[in-house]
């Protein structure tokens, strides 16, 4: 379960975040600082690598860029004079950014087109609630939540009303090699579930 470990009277901002030690990993959601868990598990890393390979191959020659954590995504609130006063800084497991004007030397400034989070017991509440709401509010077009223990992927696409739809749930049953998971916004981006959850 994710724990808020830094609190103060006023919300933390990106200015605070960038002053913290480099050997610590944090995320800011609405000004609250969340400690990132220790090194991800072997299973988490395997899923991340498989997704990176498939996403990377699909995006080759296309204008969109893929980044894996640690990679800062700063989500400034509308009307903010200086983006460094933003109270939202996250490090998704994978981010796809098609608008290259959002890319800075330090990461991404604004919502990625697609975000993927690989859930662990430590991060599940944050990924399913806080980050879901954050990504929806700031305009992420597609959100993948990967559940290693359940061997399932939930994909949420943004509808015309600016909200995430109910989503599509794909589960691996047995070792069925034909089961796949596909992107809503990137036609042809498909991953075989058996490979995604290979031990």
What would you say about this model in short?
The chain is α+β, with helices and mostly antiparallel strands and 199 residues long. The chain is built from four helices and 15 strands.
Question: Can you walk me through this structure?
Answer:
With 199 residues, this protein is of the alpha+beta class. The chain has a single domain (40-196), classed as tt1808, chain A. The chain contains four helices and 15 strands. The chain has helices at residues 14-19, 42-59, 124-138, 193-196; strands at 4-6, 26-29, 32-35, 65-68, 72-74, 89-90, 94-97, 103-104, 107-109, 114-118, 142-147, 152-157, 168-171, 180-182, 190-192. The strands form four sheets. The protein has a six-stranded mixed beta sheet, sandwiched between helices. A four-stranded mixed beta sheet has the order 6-5-9-8, with no helix packed on it. The protein has a three-stranded antiparallel beta sheet with strand order 1-3-2, with helices on one face. A hairpin with a 4-residue loop joins strand 11 and strand 12 (152-157).
């Amino acid at each position: 379960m994710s724990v808020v470990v830094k609190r103060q009277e006023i919300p933390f901002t990106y200015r605070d975040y960038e002053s913290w030690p480099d050997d610590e990993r944090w995320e800011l959601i609405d000004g609250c600082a969340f400690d990132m868990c220790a090194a991800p598990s072997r299973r988490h890393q395997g899923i991340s690598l498989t997704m990176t390979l498939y996403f990377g191959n699909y995006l080759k020659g296309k204008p969109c860029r893929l980044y894996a954590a640690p990679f800062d995504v700063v989500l400034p609130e509308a009307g903010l004079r200086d983006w460094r006063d933003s109270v939202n800084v996250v490090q998704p497991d994978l981010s796809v950014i098609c608008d290259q004007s959002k890319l800075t030397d330090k990461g991404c400034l604004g919502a990625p087109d697609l975000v993927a989070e690989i859930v662990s017991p430590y991060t599940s509440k944050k990924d399913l609630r806080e980050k879901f709401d954050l990504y929806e509010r700031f305009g992420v077009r597609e959100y993948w939540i990967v559940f290693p223990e359940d061997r399932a992927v939930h994909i949420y696409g943004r509808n015309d009303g600016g909200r995430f739809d109910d989503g599509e749930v794909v589960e691996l049953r047995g070792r069925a090699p034909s089961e796949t998971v596909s992107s809503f916004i990137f036609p042809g981006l498909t991953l075989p579930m058996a490979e995604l959850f290979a031990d």
